[in-house]
Amino acid sequence: MRGHNAVMNALMDTHCHLDAGEFDADRDAVYARARAAGVAFQVIPAVTRANFAEVEAACRRYPDCLPAWGMHPMYIDVHRPEHLEALRRQIEAWRPVAIGEIGLDLFVPGLDLATQEFYYVEQLKIAREYDLPVLLHCRRANDQILKQLRRVFGKSGVKGGIAHAFSGSRQQAEAFIKLGFKLGFGGAFTWNRATRLRALAFELPLDAIVLETDSPDIPPAWVGKGRNEPAEVAGIAAALAELRGLDVAAVARQTTANAREVLGL
User: How far apart (Å, rounded) are the C-alpha atoms in residues 95 and 74?
Assistant: First the structure.
């Protein structure tokens, strides 16, 4: 599926880390391949305060790249409370499409949950303050993520956002959708062994799905253990279309429209 370009200029990669060190040697070529594959926009989420500058540099160099500012739960060892004020300053200097990548991770051992929840909740409050959607890291923490969303936003309503790399249950998916979220699907569902995730990709309403790569991570099946990159979102769209028995151009149009809606583009 590499190089699939039947959906030229119709795709959006809603979650990629083009700023990552894995792309230092050939970032221009990676971006060019994405454009050639029909990826019109890429959302690049920050992961730490120090990373804001790298994300900003990538988004300034590549005009179709859109920033999200946030502090990732896997990096709680480097986050500091004063970084939350730095996040506010960054938002005011360059309004992002979302706050992210934020959330909780109950998969990686040794990540203190209380510290994760502190930064997650405080960043939800900042999203509420600036009326921005959020990009959520939800690894094995969907119920906890949803609990805090409801607690912080209450009856005022959630701006919405994207549950990145969604791998929860159908019930959890419906809970996110009810709160105005889209669900991010990428390379993980393209593996034949991912039966539960493939069932979700088949069954969920298409207007609830957005496409992503999380490059350089979570490569699709045809990449194997190699480096993932934003161009692969074209193959991911084709894989979703094949799974659902739909035309790939229709899948590209709908998922991109979903992304534009939830990100306010």
Answer: 24
Which pLDDT belongs to residue 153?
Answer: 85
Q: Tell me the domain boundaries of the chain.
A: 11-263
Tokens of 138: 């939800």
Q: What is the pTM of this model?
A: 0.95
* Other residues' Cβ atoms within 10 Å of the Cβ of residue 141: 23
Coil/strand/helix, residue 68: strand
CATH 3.20.20.140 fits 11-263, yes or no: yes
- What's residue 3's pLDDT? 42
How confident is the model at residue 9, as a pLDDT? 56
Triad 190, 194, 198: Cα angle to 5°: 65
Centre a 10 Å sphere on the Cβ of residue 43 and count the other Cβ atoms it contains.
29
Residues in the chain where the model's pLDDT stays below 50: 1-6, 8
The answer to whether residues 98 and 59 touch, using CB atoms and an 8 Å cutoff, is no
Where does residue 226 fall: left (phi above 0), alpha (psi -120 to 50 degrees), or beta otherwise? beta
Q: What is the pLDDT of residue 155?
A: 64
Tokens at 168, concatenated: 């929860």
SS3 43: strand
Parallel, antiparallel, or unpaired: how do β-strands 161-164 and 39-45 relate? unpaired
